[in-house]
Amino acid sequence: MSIVDENYTTNESYFDGSSYVEWLESFTIDETVDDSRRLLYSKLLNCLWLIPFEPSVGNDDDRAANGLELRQRYYYILTHETGVRVRGDAAIELEQMFGECRVLEMLVALSMQMYDLMQDLGIYNSVSRWFWEIMGQVGFDAMDDSSWVDGRDDSVIVETVGHIMHGDGVRSRSDWAGGWFGIDGWQDMEIWYQMHAYLSRYFE
Questions:
Q1: What is the pLDDT of residues 17-43, one digit of tens each?
Q2: I need a labelling partner for 19 at 20 to 30 A (CA). Which of 25, 69, 94, 155 fits?
Q3: Which of 20, 176, 32 is nearest to 104 (CA)?
Q4: Helix (H) and strand (E) counts for the chain?
Q5: Alpha-carbon span 66 to 89, nearest angstrom
Q6: What three-state secondary structure class fits 102?
């Protein structure tokens, strides 16, 4: 099922005067934390936006397609055309504006799919929860704006993401198996199946 057809319009308040990247970032906001205590991650998220997502295993190109569909969702809501397929010329314009799918887009789209899968389980469920669980697996949740060191942290992110996308991985935690979800054997496993393996613990 295409995520373009799902109802993610709860973030409409972010559209007025905000950019597409700011809209993506709005889905990562932990609404369980008060504004005064919430850590800011604009530098991390911007770095993830700047990195093109490179599919490497099986159908990982589907994850890129899901990320690109977020641009269509953004276009729909901006023009009050939610639910209407974007016209070819508009799709081309969006593609030219942002280029290929970015890592941030892929991760936000993946977190949306995790949200869909985990409904009705009686646990706290939000797009931001799953996004930050992924970030915790690779150690990026510790890289908030207040602790960010320019030149060092962006290099760490680029290197780590590059290793994950190319299947060789790095250990950001002593107990981290690898990939986006810390799954054993992840190098030969599509991101979709890594995600399901990670979520399976909630169904045991």
A1: 457 888 899 999 987 776 667 788 999
A2: 155
A3: 20
A4: 8, 0
A5: 19
A6: strand
